[in-house]
Specification:
mainly alpha, 0% strand
């Protein structure tokens, strides 16, 4: 107990309320084991005040449970029942919060995976469209090149025929 008192004093000096809260619970537990139930209740009340101030539900529940047990040891069953109910209600609240958090995390994970699947699908569709565009461009280029060659061949044949006719008319005139 002497060490807990020193630690509590140090926590108080450095304004570590979380440390004070935990130390007061431990001091209450020691007093409870020594059957100094009123002293235990005093430390539990001080620590409970800090737990409520810090909005630490787990520690608040621990204080409620210990206070219910200590009041039971004092044969004050009304207070024991009251704190037992508070602990039970808080346990349910913590459970529901945790369950809600888990559900929210699962929903977020599901939504994220769904978006990722949609993105992959859109990327695949985009790659397919790009492949189709590339294929069409290749076809257009090949068609233009083929048309150019045909035009060149027709021009060469036409020029050749024209040159042949010129030679033929020129040789006839001679």
């Amino acid at each position: 107990l002497v060490y807990y008192e020193r630690v509590l004093k140090l926590y108080h000096e450095i304004d570590n309320k979380s440390g004070q809260m935990q130390t007061m619970l431990n001091m209450g537990l020691v007093h409870d084991k020594l059957h100094k139930w009123q002293d235990a209740i005093t430390y539990y009340n001080k620590g409970l005040k800090l737990a409520l101030e810090l909005k630490n539900k787990e520690m608040t529940m621990a204080y409620y449970r210990e206070m219910a047990s200590t009041y039971g040891s004092l044969k004050n069953y009304v207070e024991a029942y009251t704190y037992s109910e508070k602990a039970s209600d808080l346990k349910d609240s913590i459970f529901n919060e945790n369950k809600s958090n888990v559900m929210a995390e699962l929903q977020t994970k599901y939504d994220t995976e769904k978006k990722e699947r949609e993105i992959r699908l859109q990327q695949a569709q985009l790659e397919l469209k790009q492949a189709e565009i590339s294929h069409l461009n290749t076809q257009k280029t090949a068609l233009a090149f083929g048309f150019g060659i045909v035009l060149l061949l027709v021009s060469v044949v036409w020029w050749s025929v024209k040159q042949s006719k010129k030679k033929a008319t020129h040789s006839r005139t001679l």
